[in-house]
Each structure stands twice: as C-alpha cells, then as structure tokens.
Structures
1.
Amino acid sequence: MAPDEADLGVPVEEIQRGIKHGVRKINIDTDNRMALTGAIRKVLTENPSEFDPRKYLTPAMAAMRKLCKERFEQFGTAGNAPKIKPLPSRRWPSAQVR
Amino acid sequence: MRGQSATTGSKPDTGDSSLARITLRQLLDHAAEYGYGVPAFNMNNMEQGLAIMEAAEETKSPVILQASRGARAYANDVVLAKLIDALVEIHPDIPVCMHLDHGNNEATCVTAIQYGFTSVMMDGSLKEDGKSPADYAYNSGITKRVVDMAHWGGVSVEGEIGVLGSLESGGGEQEDGHGVEGAISHDQLLTDPEQAVEFVKDTHVDALAVAMGTSHGAYKFSRKPDGAVLAMNVIEDIHRRLPNMHLVMHGSSSVPEDLQEIINKYGAR
C-alpha cells in the first residue's frame, strides 16, 4: 500500500526547527538513493541500448550533487567551510568530558 | 634527503590528505556556535563520494561522509579508506568528517578508526545483531567502552538512546540489515529525556541520536507528519535539559516529490 505520495519523508521545515533546538547532524541516505537510481532509470528507460556506465552514472552524480547542495543550503551549512580550521590529528582533543 | 621532503617527492603538491579531516566533535561544536546543522550523507562508492564532495565544494560546506557496515562490506574497507584519502586530497579546503554509521559492537568501531574514520557511532540501542532492542545497562556500558577507547585517539563518538522506528507502525525498517525487528512499544520508540540526560552523563558521548518517529527507508509517514508521528517536542525537551549536547536526527530524508515522480515514472513503484 503506497501512502500519499507527497508526505513520505521528514519535511525540511521540521529539520530546520530541530536545528534551532540542538540538532547538529542530520542523516540522509534515502534521498540520495532515489536521486541516483531515478537518474539511472531515466537514462536506461529512454535509451535501453546504452551500456556505457558513464552515460548513466554521470547524470546520476549530477542528481545527487543537486540534492546535496539543497540540503547544505537549507541547513545553513553552506559558507562555513572557510571558517573552520580542522585541528591536526595530533591535537585532536581526547577524553573531553562535559 | 636535502631539498626534497619525503612526503611530497615528485608528486604534484596536492597537500597532506590528513589536513582537512575533522572530528565530529570539532565540526559540531562549530555548528552549535554558529547555529547550523550538518547533513551526514551515506557513501558506498566513488560516484556518491564525488557527488557529495562537489556539492560541498560548490557551497563551501563542511561535510560528514558516513559509511555503514553494509557500505564497508560492499566497497571493502581498503577501498573506502583510499577513496576518502582521494576525496580529501581533491578538496583540501573542505573539512571532512568520516563517520561510521550504526556500529554494532566495539570491534566494528575500532576497525573503522584503524581505517581513518574520525568519528564512530556506537549504536547500543540494539544488541549486536542489530535487530533486538537492548536495555539501558547494555547500551550505556558498551557505549562507554567505545567512548573511552575512541577518545584515547581523539576520535568522536555518537551514541543512541531510544529505538529508531515509526510511531505509526510501531516498528523499524531494516537498512543494510540494521533496524529493530518486530513490533515494539510506543515508549521504546521515543527517547525518554530523563534517560537521555543520564546516558550522556554515564557515557560522555560527543553526539546523541534520539528516537522521535523517524525511521529508515522511503516510507516514513502515511500523511504529512504532525506531532503524533514526528515528535519534535522530544528534541526540544532534550535540548532544554542538555543545551550543550549535539543532537542527531536519523532517517531524515525528505523524499521530495520530484524524485518520487522520476523514480515512479521510469520504474515500478
């Protein structure tokens, strides 16, 4: 039994609400599985004679990249890479206790 | 050898592949300070790794790449480790946290660390089989052991309190062989905020996954989720009690309509 199409997942607004309340890591797998597989199916359905993997994996990667970019922007992650200086591993904090 | 560093040799100067690796703790501390969230995307192969990193580069975002036990079995630990090296080398300006998704015992966590993961999840909400709900003593005990070990090397740990699964169907969905099997009670599917406080105190985890109605897979809800099936109030309650703890939402795909349309149009439902 397929549920109502539009309402299968966790709405982005709810995640954004969570971010206001301490949510810092948001796990996403299904969306990318769908993006990749959808793009592959489209190529192979429209052109069943295609058998070069690059011909369907390139659009698959593009679909996944688009989804990831949307999430980086929606969660406020975008623009933060230049503001972080990863500590070298010898200086990783050990046994931090709150 | 004079005039030539042992690490660069004749290779192009692409930088040290360990430079942009970041622990989950440092990344989420930054996210908390500046009020943002970080998506953790699962990775099983080169295509996913390249796509995630290109998106991070284009938006200048730090990123969490995560591999499950299923991903490690599929791609082989050595391939994954070298792939991460390559991604970090290609994108030296993007901080990358490499995280183990749903470790089921101490060994899974320690071997991930050996392969260069900067963060591990010890999911003691389920027993080692990844199917049977575990009690509090088991969960806090095994999580504490992993935290002690990981922190010796500066590696971060995510723990989980409460069992992930749908509040509508009263159960979980298996993903990569991980997920509660059979029906369980409503209160097991919702993290008890008081127990979350105790768990953090007992284990010293760096991040805490909570159960509040999200589940793995494409069918999370049968209608637009409200508080009865997606208990955001649990998050808010835990955040009030643990304002400094980094919270994790699992199974948080939004399953957008345009992707549903494509996947249905070109294949079976």
2.
Amino acid sequence: MAAPAQKQDPTEARLEGLTLPDGAAWAREAREAALGRVRAMGLPTRRDEYWRYTDPATLTQAAAPRAAVFKPTDEVPLFQGVDRLKVVFIDGVFSPEKSDDLAMAGLEIDRLQDALAKDIHWAKDLYGTRETAGQDPVARPLAALNTAFATDGIVIRATGKAEKPVELIYLHRDETSDAILHHLVRVEPGAEVTVLEVGPAAARFNKCMEIDVADTGAFHHVRAQGRDHERRAVTHMFARVGKEALYKSFTTTANGVMTRNEHVIEIAGDRATAHVAGAALGDGHYGKFHHDDTVFITHDAVDCESRQVFKKVLRNGAEGVFQGKILVKEGAQKTDGYQISQSLLLDDDSSFQAKPELEIYADDVICSHGSTTGAIDETALFYLRSRGVPTDEATDLLTLAFLAEAIDEIADEALREDVAARLREWLERRRRG
Amino acid sequence: MLDIKGLAVKLEEEDKQILKGVDLSVEAGSVHAIMGPNGSGKSTLSYVLSGRDGYEVTGGSALLEGEDLLDMDPEERAAAGLFLAFQYPVEIPGVGNMTFLRTAMNAQRKARGEEEISAGDFLKLIRAKAKELKIDADMLKRPVNVGFSGGEKKRNEILQMAMLEPKMCILDETDSGLDVDAMKLVSEGVNALRDAGRGFLVITHYQRLLDHIAPDVVHIMADGRIVKSGGPELALEVEKNGYADILTEVA
C-alpha cells in the first residue's frame, strides 16, 4: 500500500538524503521493512488526527532547522552524585573517549551497529519488533523512519540486577546536527536495570527505544531533556511488559522549540505494572516552546496496573499537549488504569490541549482519567506572601508543588531528589534573570 | 505600633463600603481585642491590613511604626513585622511545612538585609517551638495544613508566628473551630509571645478566647466603625447581654 498522494512527495524529499546503513542480512531486512512502512504510511502532517495539536513540519522536513548550542556555564551535570555508567553521544555519534567501558556485572552492552552487524545476536528479535507492533492502531511513521535509518545507539541486555544505572548523555555541539538514535533494552526474567537519558542531543533528534521487559523483570527510566532553547525532538518508547514485570518512566523537560514524546506500552503479562510520568517547564520567553506527550497503553492481561501522570507549567506563550489513551482489551479483567494530565498556566498567552481517551472491552476494570488546566492558586499565593515570600518566589514554590506528583513517580530517592533539585535550580536561575 | 486613622474601604468588584472610618491605635506591649457582630467589618480590617486583593482603600491611613502599610506589598508588610493569623489557614499541597517556614523566614530576613538562618539553626529553633505547641515531627513534614484538623491548623498559625517573631500580630477569629484543649494550647502560645515590644490585635466573636488571652483594651465594631472602646469588662458585657444593648446605646 502506498501513502496518500499528497504525502508521497514530502516523504520522498525527506528520504532522499538518507541511506540505509549496512549490517547483517537480518538487520538489513528489518531496515528495509521499516522503510517500506514509512513509504506506506507517509510522513505525518498537521492534517493527521494524531498530529492535530502539534505541527510535525520541522520534524519531517529534509534538513534539520538550525538550533543554537546552549552553553550554561553555571550548571553541573545532572546525576553527578549518582554512581552510573556513562555512555556519551555527541550530536548523535557515540564517543568512546568520553564514555565509560561498556561493561557492568548483570548487563551486556553493545553499540547498536555492532549488534546489527552480527549474524547472531539477541537484538534480532527486538529491533523493529516493538515499533512495528506499535504502528497498530495508530501510525507512527517517524518511528519507522528511525528503525530504517538509525545510525547509532546502544543495546542493553540485563541478565541480573544491574549494579548501577546506565546513563545516556546526549551532547549537542553542532548547530545543524540531525541525529537518529535507536536503543534496545531487553530485561531478562527477574533482572533489573535503570536507564537515564540526559541532554539535548542535537539540533534535531529522532530517538527510538524498544524495551522488552520479560516476566518479573524491572525497567526504570529517568530522562531530562536538554535545556537548549532551539532544539527539536521526537522520541518513541515502545515497550512490552511481561508477567509481574515493572516498567517505570519519568521525563522532565525544560525548554525546546519542539518536543514530541510518545510512549507505546503493551502490558502483556498478568499482574504487570506500567507507570509513565512527565514534568515539563515551558517558558516562551526564551523562544517558542511546544511540548507534546502522547501515550498509548494497551492492557492485554489480567490484574495489571497502569498510571499516567503528566504535569506542565507553561508561561509566556508556551504550548502544551497531552494525548493519552488507555485501551483495555477483551479479557483484561481487574485492570486498574489511572491517567491524569494537568497544566498550570502562569499567564493568558500560554495554552494546553488535552485529549484523554479510554477504550474498554472488559467489564471488571477500574479506569479513571482527569485533565485540568488552571492558573496559580491565588489564595495559596497570598498566604505565602503574607508570610513574607515575594510573589515570584512564592510562584516557584507553588510550581514545584504542582510538579511534585509527577516527580514522585521516580522510584529511586537519589534520582528523585536530583531531578527535584534541578527543577528548583532552573526556577531560581530564571528568577535571578 | 499600629496606628489606623479614618480607614475607609470598599469592595473592589462592587460598590459596597465595608469600613467607614476606623480609628484604632495599638501600642507596643498591649493586647487589643475587637469584637462585633457578623458583617461588622472585623475580618475585612485584618485582610486590608495584610494586603489582600479585592479591596479598595477610599480614605484614611494605617501605619506600622510610622511606616505606611497600605503602600506596601503583602510580603513587605510581613518583613516590616506584620503577621496575620488566618481565620481559615490555607492548605498548600506539595509544599512541606518546614520548607514553607524556612522560605518565609529567609525571605523576611533577606528583605531586612539580615543573614539567612542556617539549616541547623532553623531545625533547632523549629523543634523547640513546635514542642511547646505540641506539634509533632510528622506535622512539620506534611504539606502545609493539608489533612490538618481545625485545631492543628490554628496551632500551625501560632507556630509560624513564634518562628517569624513579628512586631504586630493580628489574630483573626483564631478561636473558631477550636475545642477547649486546643484553645488553651493556642492561647498559651500567644501569651508566650507577649512582650513589651510587640502588639496584638485579637479579633473574635466570643469572650471565651479573652479568658485565656487577657486584653488590655476591648473595641466593639459595628457597621464598619469602632463604636465603643473600653477595658476587659466590655467583653464580659457583650458575653452577658449580646451586642444589641451596646449598639442601641451608641446609635
């Protein structure tokens, strides 16, 4: 099947400058199949229902729009106090010099292209598999584009409890860099791993992570998208969660012209848990800010729990979007699904659009969703001021309080404290001007 | 300490005059009580003095140690030494009680050009003050006033007062919603703060709070004015005969 006629030319224009990387026969096959999916779907446009609130034009155009490199001089790297294995990418290219040895007890780590060059590798079962499954019922062409053309990435197989987190550090140095990274994470039964992601990555960043959490495995993900004001990013997390397994992901975002973060999670084993959370701080003062969280969680097993907690604080014309869906399949009884998306608008220029969806085909489930948009609580603000706290500081305090429910989704205390402290510092720095 | 002259205030949103010329002076070291029927303007007076939105001052003045209160933002009034114990303390989910108090304390110190209090000193101080008010560690850690009982909220107000050490304290119906034991605790907290350099304005409906916090002067407020002032015996008279007699007498 070919894409609609009006999508063919723009799609081919984007594909023109890209070449399918080499690899083993199976990898080549997976990439060609992905390219076929891109051509069949066509790249998204504003007219697509799934892109109604976010214009994908700059994400799909042939060349990456220029993005200045932001150089905060007074900022220490996040998670510095946490013992972790560092994997560094500069403008989407793995840097062996800056990275630690890719070795840790309980983990097998390879560079994506090394794994994809081997005739026999566990990555074969995962590369493109979750992404393909995630194309139904909603097309995600930018993820297929990623599978076809990803030039770098990391593949992690957890065979035991990893002794420390793996941190993917994305440095941005080149104003025109256009990075496509693809990561794989396979968590074996009973194994556990934490993956951290930090940094702006590139002028334009297309990232895909496919995660397979086997029965009783646990996957933790904490991400801080970089502060570069002009960067653009489209990211996909495709996960399958097995029996009694745990999937937990948290993202914080401050700044960025354009961010679209998608989570596509299939809860496939009984008594499994999936939590996805996000805390975004958008300030249009530094340039346009548009942030879109799009989540699709499918319950296909019994007695499972899923939770989506997304909070956004928007000011100076910043735009926030939330599209969240819970699909409970026939037979997925005793499902406990919870979804909340809230925005705090600090002025009249900012906007938030939310599309919460529930689709339920089982009769013994508890599913709830809520979405709110509001201004700062004037009563609380006055209470703080009456105790001597100036308006801007009081606003920051209430802002952090508003984000707290999302930040509390981070299971590890040290990581949680670090993220909370970072958000506090950002606000303080902003206040000082 | 606090000098109010001819203070006239209307609602910002509608043409309704609430205060119609309030004259009141609270000297340092003294406790003044304001009593009055519902709708007399008692709470409005406390809000206007603390700088809450929604009111328009149409005449008169309010000075704190000679400084024009009405010209200051709420946070400036606090730093200048004014404290309002709220009738309905506000719940702030997500902000820890300790963080709240330390932020407030340091903001006031900063505004006055003083050193910030260290984390260690703050902890020592708050533990000591909390103990006096029977506020446990759990209450200090919880979000501000969230899930607090009526009595706990009022004790928390007094804890803030004790920590911030204001010069002029206004207590707006602090007795409302308190049982006898809580009233005693709150009153003891207030009495412990009585000091030659500090003034108190206690707004209440009932005489019973004044059994615990003995006032030097009692004012009766009605229809936006102080209509009668006297000694503690005035409160007893209200308790016995209600406001009707007094209002008829001054009419």
3.
Amino acid sequence: MSSRLPQHANTELLSAYLDDEVGLVEARALESHLESCDACRARLRGLRGVVHQLSALERPAPPPWLITQVRREVLYTPKESVWARLGRALMQVPFAAPAASMLVSVTFMVLLFSSFGGGIVKQGLPGLANYPGPVEEPKADPNQQMIEATSEVAGRKFVRHEDDDVWNAWLYSTAGPAASAASAEQPVKNVWVEQGLPSSTTPIARIDARSPQGRALLAHEPDLGYLLADGSRVVMRYQRETLELRSGA
Amino acid sequence: MEAATVTTAAVHDVDLELVRRHRYGDVRAFDEIYHRFDQMVFNLALRLSSDAEQAADLTQEIFLRVFRYVGQFRGGSSLKTWIFRIAVNHCRSSLGRRRLPMLPLFEEPSEDERGSGAIPDPGRGPEELAVAADEGRRVAAGLARLPESFRVAVVLRDLEGLSYEEIAEVLGVRIGTVRSRIARGREQLRVYLEGSL
C-alpha cells in the first residue's frame, strides 16, 4: 500500500521521522514525497542538523562531593510511613481534608489514652529512618542506661554507643584517666566500636576523615562514611592496629 | 526487537531488585541507584536551570525525594522514567517559584550564558575544538531560550535519549503532545541557530 502526501510535510512529521517514530505507511509516503520535494528535504536536513548538535552537547557529571552531601542528608530524611501515605491519599479526595483531620484527631486521642496509647508512649514515635543506620532494631539495656545498636558496614560489624559515659569508661579502661578527661572536652554523639575488639586495646592513632590518611582509609572502605556522616567516631581494627576515625565535622 | 524486549525486562528486574534491597535496609542499594541516574538527573536540572550550582542543589533535593519514596516503587514503569518524573516535577515546582529561567529566543547570548559547550574530541585540532565549543555554547544558549514545555521534551529526547512513549510517561501527556513539543522545540532552535550564525 502506498500513499502520497497531499502537500508539503509538516515539521511534526519530519521531526518524528528522524526519530523513527512514524508508522510504516506514513514513512513510505514521506520518503516518496521527499524524493521530489527540495524544500522538504532542506527542512529535514535542517532538523537533522539540530538533532546532531543537541546530541553533541556536553553532559557533565555532577560534582563528586554531591554523593557525600546526599548521604548526609538522607540520614535525616525519614522514609514515608504508611500512615503518612494514607493521610496524603486522603487529602487528595475533595472535601476529605476537614473530615480526615477530625478523624485523625479523634483517633490520636483514643490511641493516646487507650491501652494502645500506652504502647505508643512506651515504644516512642518512629524516629529517623533506619537508612543507613542500624541494621538491627535498637534495644535498650536497662542496666547500663544506654541504647545499643549494630551496623554492618564494609564487611565488619560495629556496635554503637550513644552515651558518652560509656565511651569515657571504655577509654578509661583502655587508656587511663588522662585520655578519658581529654575525650570529655568534646561531647561524643555516637561511637561505633568494631564488634569483637579486645577491650584491652588502645587506639594507636586518631585520624581525621579529612586528613590524607583519613581520605586514604575512606577511599579503601568508603562505606565507613555512613557511620561518620552524623559526626560519629569509629573505632576499628586496621592492619592489626586499633584506630579511631573521626568525621572532623 | 526481541533482544530489546529482553534487555528492557532485565533492566526492570534490576530496578525491582534494587528497590527490594533498599526496602530491606541495604545501604548500598541507594548508592547504586544514585550512581545509575545521577548524571541524567544533573543534566536535566542543568538544562532546566541553566546554572550548575542550582543544578547541584536540585539534584540533591531530587535524590532525597527518590530516597524517601523509592520504597513505594512497584515497577509499573521503569525506575528511569519514575526518577525522571520526580526530577521534572521537582525542577518545575522549584524553579517555577523562582520563575523557570527562559531567555528571549531571538537575542544574542551573553558571555555569562556561555557555560556549556560541546564534548571535546581529542582527535580534532585546536581550531576545530574551538569551533565545536562555540557551536556547543550557541546550542546551549538556544536551548535555554525555548519555552519550558518544549525544552523539557527536547532535552529528554535529544540529550537523554528517551523514546516518545517514555517521555509521555514522564510528562503525563499523550504521545501526540510529545511529538508536537519536540518538533516545535527543534524548529524554534533551528531558526535560532540559523539566525545566530
């Protein structure tokens, strides 16, 4: 089957033809027309030139520091909960917003004062997303008054200590009171200690992540950056020695 | 055609596997998503904002949204078009508040606008490279002058290589509309480039 174009080809047809986005019949008709129409051939050439120039445009890579910044930001970005999604979906229904807000208020009050509410209060509201934080759920240790969590990074397991007293106690037991006092000058947020590290070992060096040694270490084990991203420290074995890595933030 | 279908299905499986790993807390999954799509997101943001610094900010914000919502990705489309949809919507809403930069189409580009050139080809001599760079700047300046709807369609097609069907999915419009926007964008750019010689 063949057909001919009644007049000159329009730009839309020529442009789609360049992209192979026209049907077979349409394409044959256009090709037949182009054989005898200098004006359409010239326009097609012009458009092909534009496409060629566009495809030759530079496609720069994003700045290399952007991934670090994104990782840092996602630490504080909670994943959307089921309740938030449900709420958002409800809000898109016309006239649902006032009813939904009333329902949410009533439900919240019921939960707060019912036996379920006790559960919420005891467990606490959902906090930060578990990316890229602990793999296991944090569990409270009533005896030591600290929250402990573990994270598997760079093929090693790390235990998080949130209480600076624990860190000081650990330092005291390993390096003595002087080190403990020096450490107390800077408030500790989190300390990730590699699991299985002998408690008798003292870090032989404290390395700033921004220093040449720190950068070299992170280049070798980039995932450690996850643990450092919020200003935490990491105590780990490296080449048979114990090191402390600081974010320097 | 069969090979293309197999490839698409394989990519789709990789997408779903990445999302599944992300849901289960695998920290590397999001990194992989970032590295697969960072360049395309950054370039889209760069062509829509015409400013590298702003494009970096937009890219960061887009990936934060991706991180937040990727757990909801169910594979109804490819991850690529899903992320492009987030990127386009975010650029539009973010730049729309600051007015999406659009320069008058028939005006000589200023020196400041000449930031993005053509890909340097090591096989060419210095003069040829200079000509190519100049041509790249003219094209980038012309692109920055296109109306936003045409510019997005042209960028997705000619710089990012999406099919008309994929672009329609990203923009939430019919294929006929995509075809029209691309054609009109290219035509306006052709006229601009001929006039700026």
